[in-house]
Structures are given as structure tokens and as C-alpha cells.
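Researcher: Sequence of TOD1/MUCI70 glycosyltransferase-like domain-containing protein follows. Predict its structure.
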Amino acid sequence: MGKAKFSTPLLCQSKLLCFSLLYLISALILAVHFTFSATKCIFRSSPFDPIQSSLFSYPSSYGEHKYAIPTTRSSCNSPVYFSDYWGALKEIQQSCANSTELGASSLRYMQGNAESFGGNFSIQKRVSYFDHRVDETEIPCGFFKSFPISSSDQISMENCKGVVVVSAIFNDHDKIRQPRGLGTKTLDHVCFFMFVDDVTLKRLHFHDLISSKSKEHKIGAWRIIKVSSEYLYANAAMNGVIPKYLIHRLFPNSKYSIWLDAKLQLVVDPLLLIHSLIVKENVDMAISRHPYFLHTMEEAMATTRWKKWWDVNGLKIQMETYCENGLQPWDSSKPYPTDVPDSALILRKHSVSTNLFSCLLFNELERFNPRDQLPFAYVRDKMKPKLKMNMFEVEVFEQVAIEYRHNLKQGGASVGPKVKMASSNLFVNGSCSKCEGYLLKMWGESHD
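Model: Prediction complete. C-alpha cells:
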């Protein structure tokens, strides 16, 4: 019996075909490598974390996924490594259970009645509360008028005792978007609250997203809280500032929170975000850096240039007030990488420092305007005790949330009071003597 002959497989007889297969396999290996590479800004240590299924199906007419803003960044200088989901959940639970110093009770708040929700204090009075190293001092922190929500909603908010995620839509300015990437147990331990006004609520009724017969509303993960905003501020953006910065007072028993502008859709589990950006970093607050600006004055000038707020004279007075009271441009001696954040996403531990910062900043917003990037560095740098803050890379922000454009409306959105607009140049004809030193230092011309 002769020896068996083994011929070359037909598949490998063509050199071109063999080369193509080798190229395909190499490309697949590289694709897998870059998909899970640690050069990404976010990296899950366990790709097998349990993921919640889709939370809600919207009618096509609502269009909640229209007008996403594309991003082009693919890597960053300091990637965030997420812990195992179950480990993060356990550690946050233990932190919430064992922390007596966290929550709204970490400060004492001023009581009383006033014509405005925040009291509208003078600059001298506001400055006097920045140094809070004496625990007995009562801090002005809003609620000088009642916050107009139902008693059942208030009870539900007080019962949120761990992590809360909060957003708001006023004047039907955005869509409700469901968070993605939630672990299977996250909704058992994290509360989601969306504040809306009557205009937004009517739009939700129009799309049959909620029932007009029910007194309590829920859409997917979000519990919908109706706010009778006509009793608060005339400007819708200022009403949105209340849940954004007084979140610790609206949820007095929560220990951690995430504020999410309604233009964003969260795509990473909030427990993983809190654990990686707050707990592991041992900070009070985490917030993204601004993609372009370092100095507060750059943001102020952009606010007038792009007409984000029409009252330019009011902006000028605001910046002169801050310059006169110690605002300095950013430099490397500051323990923060920038003076300007992107405040669409804010993560907080409800500590003394964070609650104080939120109260002080809210008071500035009520006095001037709801553009919260303008008083940010002024309050942060001037307050005591100091705030431990993680100002993370812009690329991280772009990978934990998808940003969408606001609802498109005829005539545009209301961005400020109806006043006669001054020049779009914030400091026209050099008329900013109180900020001259700031500007010279910012431009590198100071000889101090």
C-alpha cells in the first residue's frame, strides 16, 4: 500500500487570497486592540458588567435622538479606569451608610421670607459668608420663597438617601433622554429626577408620554417633578439653576449626586462615574474642563460675543465686581488646571465644602445672571474651607455623555432680560478700570 499524498488546500493555493486573509485577520486583531485599549479616556475593567435593557420606547414623533453634536476626540492624557460594577456598588453603599458628615445637614441654612427665592443679598453680605470655618454661621442658600412642587414629590425626594441623578427642562428647551449603560441593580440604588415646568409638561402630554389623569409621572428611569415656575423667576434658565446648584437642599438625605444638563444623555452607569471620579480620587466635586478657555474673562467675552446673555452692561458690572473683590486670572500657581469648567455635568459628594460652594455660587447667579461659568473661579478661589475638585479632561466628558442641540424654535430661546443691548464688546473703549490689572496679567503684560 503506497504512502498517502497530502496536497496543498485549494484555499491556500492562491497567494493573493492568502495575503487577503492575513490582512483581514491582522485588521481584526488591531480593531479589537484599539477598542479595548487603555488609551481610551474611559476603560471598563470588566466588560461583563451586567447592563440594564432598554428603559423606554419613545414615539417617533418625539425625536429624542435628533441633532446629536459629533465629537472627534479619540484619546486623552489621563484615561479613567472604572472598577468592577459590583465592587463600586458595594463601596458606595458602605460610604452612604457610614457617613454622618454627608448630606444637607452638614451646614446650617438661613431661614426667612424675601421677594426673591435667593434673597438677593448685597455684595458685602455675600462676601461675608465665604469664610465658613465657624460651623455656627447660617448660610443663605435659597428657599426664601417656597419651592412650588407637590407634597408627594417632596416626600419622594426626601426618601432618596444614596445617589441621585438630577436634570431639568424648562420652557420645553430639551428632550427627555434615557440613561444608557446602567447596571441591573442601579435603579434600586440610584434615583433619577427630572424637573419640568408647565410648558414642558404640556409637550409631554401632547406626545402621550405621560397621562393627564395621573398626579405622579415617570418616563423610563426618570421621575418627572412639575415645578410651578411662575412663582419663581421670570427667566427659565434661572429656574433651572435651582435644582442644579441647590440639589443638596432638594434632596437633603442624598450623599452623592450627578447633575446632568438636559441636552446630555448619560451613557455610563452613575455608580461607576461617582466611584471613579469622586470616591477613588478622594474629592468633593468632579467637573469637566472647558474645551477652550482657561480664564474667566475669556468666558465673559465669549458670552457677549455669542449673545449668550444680552445684558452686556450687567455682565460688565459683574466682572468689575469680581475683579474688585479679588478675582485673578488663571496661572500655574492655582491648584486647578483651569478657571473655566463645562458645567453641563457635575458630580458631587454632599460635603461641607461642596454644599457651601453650591450655596455661594447660587447667590451670585441670582444677583447677576444664570451663566454659572462666570462666578465659578471667583467663588472656588475665595471660599474657605477649600474645595477638593477633580477637573477632568474634556475627552472624558465626551465619552460618558452624548450632547444634543437644544430644541429648535422659531425666534430662538430666551437668553436674557429684554433690555437695550450695549456693544457686544464687553470692555469697549477700555472702560474697565477695575479689571485692568486682571487683563494685563491675563495677556502677560503685567509688571507686578
